[in-house]
Inverse folding.
């Protein structure tokens, strides 16, 4: 290693080339070769210069490429494709995303199972969604719904993902109780959720702590919410999206997927758990805080008795008057193209009714269950959350999209005690069914990963709910054109 | 009333859970991560230093600290921090780039230089020439760089802090020549940049251009970078030439207040920078060819750092003036490039 200081040794070094030249000029034996050597030297010099020029050009190109790569690494990433519109940072720690669903349905009913007015086209769901993440930790979502002639806020919440085991969510969202309720709309296998979902909360306002452990093998959610009646959202309340009763609803759920990280193909898709809510709910005849239940064809088939008193006679509607406890064991199993979802939901509700100055009280137990099967004819893998069609369908091009067959059996049973007591009963057996049993089949076609066409056929049999005998069987033919962006 | 109490209890429990969740990572203070956004040639320095500091911190507190490094041209790094790169600390080539983060990004106070000794420059360096073995173009001083046929490698002052030191050292030499003035210095700088075939974005890029791509006859270089090149790429390939005049280059360090506040890393970030001033930190700097501030450590490594006439940034009226006059939009460098 040499360090040269300015001017040091310069004279000797500077003289050496000239000395060499002088020697060459004074050596007679070399005189005849000088032109050839000069030509060689010029040529070598020229080649060296060309090599330098080439190296400079290559380096400039290299620097341009490095600059382009660096710019790409820090430039905001805009993703617009068939399934996503997103603007975010390169590391995805900050982004906002636009999504949406549009469900255009047709409902038709066979036989005498429903009034002719029930046959209808409707926009079942029109939900644009804005969601995003900041700092890789803080999430938000805002989803209004303009379907079914309403304008409501479906989801509006903020979440902080401190770590996988501790996520805090605040706002309006789905309390974690029922399994099928927790599936997002685009991931539903049937157009309408099953009967057990009628007994669990839909959307509610509150706060929830949740988390996953062991790579998702164990998950939990605990929360405190305003509380809603079975199957309802807080926007259905008389004063939408505000607390309107005396107590809050405590919700908790655990879900276990013991083999999710296993190589065992047969068991990897198994998950089971239980959800629950509890609320001490003091309703009143004027504000009963009690649910209605629908058939699978979405027609009202059960309600508690409403007020029939007139004048100064006290309100005689049935109302909630005490504890409400929901319990929802649940299970799913997915293996290859096959999927099964099963759940049982039970709700125990303290109710009262005041008739002729006498208040009658009881604890009613209503329950529902379903078993739901799905099978991709085209070989895609079933799962609880989403899938990607193996092919897309476009006119004149190869590919069929994904085809799926679905089937379901289910039942909802209202406590017989609700109908005991004749005119003093909590529910009127002449208008409210005591049980509904249904089976349904359907086919889903996914020509594109954001497009879904569905046809469902459901037959529901009832016990009670008619002036004489049972309410007629319901045959529902539902079709849907869905865009899930 | 009982219901209300229950509700309150639950809200308290949930709030506590939120707090616990939020502070879970603090509670696990056993692991903390810092991001040091630095300039191009400090890779090796901070690789060594980070290891030493992690051991020191573990011994002192029992906590594990992992320091991530980011390197690029100093000006470009400052821009990245202003644009959101979450640097807990910046260790940049010159004060002007930290000033930019303070003034334009508002991420730390403008008096950041006063928070650490030696106006927050724990080590220094200077600018030298790296030439090919045997010095075939006979480069001895700045004046040789403008001779016809001499290829000069230096990065772009718009993106590289080192390039700005190079430029100012050349300017200072020109002004010190007989009859020297701003006009002659400008003429000299203009000629010098006409001999520059490639403008890299950072000092490490220039070293690559000169040493690995074989372009040019002389690289104007950080002293530490020149030493590293000769050490890593072979003392039989390069020589270091010390010019008659150079500049005292003072790389600056600072905690980025808004980032450490958000990440809860202020204490460890401050200690990280303070450790640079300890004898251990100074020794590591010297081992990586940066001139230590500590006199004892400097004396120990005196053979690495020959004495030479050094101007300072104060001779240019400070970084604020020099930056605006020479490197700002429409400044002297832009005017030269436009010619």
């Amino acid at each position: 290693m040499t360090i040269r200081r300015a001017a040091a040794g310069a004279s000797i070094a500077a003289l050496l080339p000239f000395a060499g030249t002088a020697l060459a000029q004074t050596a007679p034996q070399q005189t005849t070769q000088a032109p050839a050597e000069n030509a060689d030297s010029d040529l070598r010099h020229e080649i060296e210069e060309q090599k330098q020029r080439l190296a400079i050009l290559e380096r400039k190109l290299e620097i341009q490429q490095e600059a382009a790569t660096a710019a790409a690494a820090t430039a905001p990433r805009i993703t617009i494709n068939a399934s996503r519109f997103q603007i975010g940072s390169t590391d995805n720690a900050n982004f906002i995303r636009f999504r949406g669903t549009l469900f255009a349905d047709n409902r038709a009913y066979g036989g005498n199972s429903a009034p002719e007015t029930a046959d209808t086209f409707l926009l079942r769901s029109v939900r644009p969604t804005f969601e995003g993440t900041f700092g890789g930790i803080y999430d938000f979502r805002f989803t209004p719904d303009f379907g079914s002639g309403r304008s409501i806020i479906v989801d509006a919440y903020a979440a902080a993902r401190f770590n996988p085991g501790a996520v805090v969510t605040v706002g309006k969202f789905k309390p974690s109780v029922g399994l099928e309720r927790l599936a997002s709309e685009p991931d539903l296998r049937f157009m309408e959720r099953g009967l057990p979902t009628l007994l669990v909360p839909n959307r509610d306002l509150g706060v929830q702590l949740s988390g996953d452990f062991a790579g998702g093998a164990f998950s939990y959610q605990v929360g405190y919410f305003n509380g809603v009646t079975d199957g309802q959202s807080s926007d259905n309340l008389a004063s939408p999206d505000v607390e309107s009763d005396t107590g809050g609803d405590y919700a908790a759920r655990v879900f276990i997927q013991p083999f999710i990280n296993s190589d065992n193909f047969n068991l990897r898709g198994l998950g089971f758990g239980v959800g629950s809510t509890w609320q001490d709910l003091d309703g009143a005849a004027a504000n009963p805080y009690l649910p209605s239940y629908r058939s699978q064809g979405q027609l009202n088939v059960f309600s508690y008795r409403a007020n029939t008193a007139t004048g100064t006679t006290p309100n005689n509607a049935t109302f909630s008057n005490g504890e409400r406890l929901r319990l929802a064991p649940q299970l799913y199993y997915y293996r290859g193209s096959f999927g099964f979802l099963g759940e049982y939901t039970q709700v125990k509700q303290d109710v009262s009714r005041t008739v002729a100055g006498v208040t009658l009280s009881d604890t009613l137990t209503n329950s529902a269950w379903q078993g739901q099967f799905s099978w991709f004819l085209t070989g895609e893998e079933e799962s609880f959350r989403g899938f990607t069609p193996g092919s897309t369908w476009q006119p004149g091009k190869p590919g069929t999209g994904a085809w799926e067959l679905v089937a379901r059996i289910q039942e909802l049973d209202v406590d017989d005690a609700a109908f005991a007591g004749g005119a003093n009963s909590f529910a009127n057996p002449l208008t409210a069914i005591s049980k509904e049993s249904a089976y349904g089949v359907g086919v889903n076609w996914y020509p594109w990963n954001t497009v879904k066409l569905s046809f469902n056929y459901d037959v529901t049999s009832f016990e009670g709910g008619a002036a004489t005998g049972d309410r007629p069987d319901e045959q529902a033919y539902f079709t849907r054109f869905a865009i899930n962006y | 009333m009982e219901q209300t109490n229950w509700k309150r209890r639950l809200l308290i429990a949930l709030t506590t859970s939120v707090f616990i969740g939020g502070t879970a990572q603090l509670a696990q203070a056993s692991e903390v991560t810092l991001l040091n956004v630095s300039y191009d040639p400090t890779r090796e320095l901070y690789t060594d230093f980070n290891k030493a500091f992690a051991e020191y911190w573990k011994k002192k507190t029992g906590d594990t600290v992992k320091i991530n490094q980011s390197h690029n041209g100093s000006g470009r790094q400052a821009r990245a921090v202003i644009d959101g790169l979450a640097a807990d600390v910046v260790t940049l080539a010159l004060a002007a780039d930290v000033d930019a983060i303070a003034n334009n990004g508002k991420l730390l106070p403008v008096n950041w230089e006063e928070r650490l000794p030696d106006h927050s420059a724990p080590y220094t360096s200077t600018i030298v020439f790296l030439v090919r073995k045997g010095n075939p173009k006979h480069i001895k001083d700045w004046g040789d760089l403008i001779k016809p046929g001499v290829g000069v490698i230096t990065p772009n002052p718009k993106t590289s802090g080192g390039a700005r030191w190079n430029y100012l050292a050349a300017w200072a030499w020109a002004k010190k020549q007989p009859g020297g003035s701003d006009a002659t210095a400008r003429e000299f700088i203009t000629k010098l940049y006409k001999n520059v075939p490639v403008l890299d974005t950072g000092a490490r890029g220039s070293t690559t251009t000169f040493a690995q791509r074989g372009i040019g006859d002389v690289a104007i270089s950080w002293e530490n970078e020149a030493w590293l090149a000769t050490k890593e790429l072979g003392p039989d390939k390069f020589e270091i030439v010390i010019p008659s005049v150079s500049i005292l280059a003072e790389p600056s360090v600072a905690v980025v207040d808004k980032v450490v506040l958000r990440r809860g890393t202020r204490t460890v970030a401050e200690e990280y920078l303070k450790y640079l001033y300890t004898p251990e930190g100074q020794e590591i700097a010297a081992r990586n060819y940066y001139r230590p501030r500590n006199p004892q450590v400097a004396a120990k490594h005196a053979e690495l750092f020959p004495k030479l006439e050094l101007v300072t940034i104060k001779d240019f009226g400070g970084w604020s003036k020099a930056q605006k006059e020479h490197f700002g939009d429409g400044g002297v460098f832009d005017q030269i490039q436009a010619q």
Chain A touches chain B through 40 residues (CB under 8 Å). Residues 206 and 295 of chain A are 29 Å apart (CA to CA). Residues 34-74 of chain A form the longest helix (41 residues).
